[in-house]
Amino acid sequence: MDGNLHIWQLEELLEVQGGKAKFPKPQRSIQAHTAAVASLCLVKDTYLFSGGWDSVVNVWDLRKGFEFVGSLNGHAGFVRAICGMNDDIVLTAGNDRTIRIWEVESMACSGMMTGHELPILTLLVVNGFLLSAGYDSVIKVWDVSKRLCLQNLTGHTQAVTCL
Fold it and tell me: What rounded mean pLDDT belongs to the chain?
């Protein structure tokens, strides 16, 4: 919960020497947020989006060695979920009960959707539709292009923490 991103080389993690796994130190550590990192999303194999308890989404360029690109500001409260809609759109959600729509290249917020009564914990894109869920126990199905909730899936009696 230190706000850091740690980067390892996968090949090093998989090395076994003398029958024992090697546990290397991170190749790099980045102070990404001023509070805990709660969500990550990789877009285009180029940009890493990190959401934190500091209400900010930060963007990192992997092609340039995890260079900081900028911050997406707009949420009030923890950013708990980030999901790529496609290579051009990233969706974020969290404690403020909003889903924000971000243009990847311009890093501009192009819209917002509301409807959850409690904080949103998870997002998932399936066949072009967005699913969102959280503490209100409801899974919502969204048409992002129309900014419209198409369906509420009910039945859970506790928070839906993953999709």
Answer: 93
